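Bit of a strange request maybe. I'm writing a small parser for structure token strings and I need a real example to test against, not something I typed by hand. Could someone generate the tokens for this chain?
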Amino acid sequence: MPGYGIKSPDEGGGLLPWAWAEGRLVRSHDYWVASVRPDGRPHVMPVWGAWNQGSFWFSGSGKSRKVLNLKQNPACTVTTDNPQEPVVVEGTAEIIDNVALLAIFLNRINMKYRTNYTLDYLDPEVKTCVKVKPIRVLALEQENFTGSPTRWDF
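Reply from user aminoacidic:
Good idea to test on real output. This should exercise your parser:
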């Protein structure tokens, strides 16, 4: 990576394995979701979520700014909560209202956060959650900043 001093494989640099990034996507306690407001300004919010079957899932009220943004423009970015080992998912959001998929999402959330949420937990007017399918994922280790930056394209 010119200008950043990123090491080539010959210099000791190396790509991170996908399992490294996916492990952090699964284990992260909190995530940051960035979306775009109708006027083009960015909007960022912390959320609880779950990495499941190659996508990131989270809930939000149908009237929340992040969900309204994603309904208008599904392009978004999700990051894990550890800035020393960040994983950044650039993707496309899909609003999910299928009851069977919502039940799977809530089961994952309940296992991860030791909660006992039911479908009643979701916005009563619009029982939905958001699924973010990755387009690109970026990751690196702070301790190996010049040798670890890795990108996966989907």
